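I have a small job for you when you get a moment. Can you supply me with one protein entry, sequence and fold together? It will help me judge whether the discrete encoding reads sensibly. Write everything out right here, beneath this request:
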Amino acid sequence: LTVDHLTNNVPAGTMHEWADFYKNVFGFTEVRYFDIKGAKTGLTSYALRSADGSFCIPINEPKSDKDQIAEYLREYRGSGVQHLAFTTDDILASLDALEGTGIETLEIDPDYYVEAFQRVPIVREDKERIKAHQVLLDGDASGYLLQIFTKNVIGPIFIEIIQRVNNLGFGEGNFGALFRTLEKDQERRGVL
């Protein structure tokens, strides 16, 4: 495994300041800007790539006081690392190895896969195993990625495991499914 990206959460209005810090001090370059909306919540994010191209640092800020980033900032009293993403060459083997460790992954609505396999038909891995492990997929005609997210494992930090096949994206096609899952959890806990 190698580090793919390290996502930071910061208060509203400070994302540009932190992006400039990484650019000016460490030579990072901006590779993506996201304005993500769920049914009830959202976030904005800059994704920055290291000067040597080896990993990224996305920086998230909340859009409202109820969204997942605002909840993180309240719960953990300020900015911090939200998640670590590790790249693997075989996500299904990595998830097989994870079984029995007690680390839980996010639950994905089974209906997600009907649309996902149509949207990304070039996936070569076993579709039944992808569904069984609740792996998310995204991509285009040139490549795809497979990804999964754990629940929090160390304080506020959760883990993402990602397999890239000619794709440098962040799973943008999965943002809707992720937000539905996170918003359901926030509703269950009374945050939304």
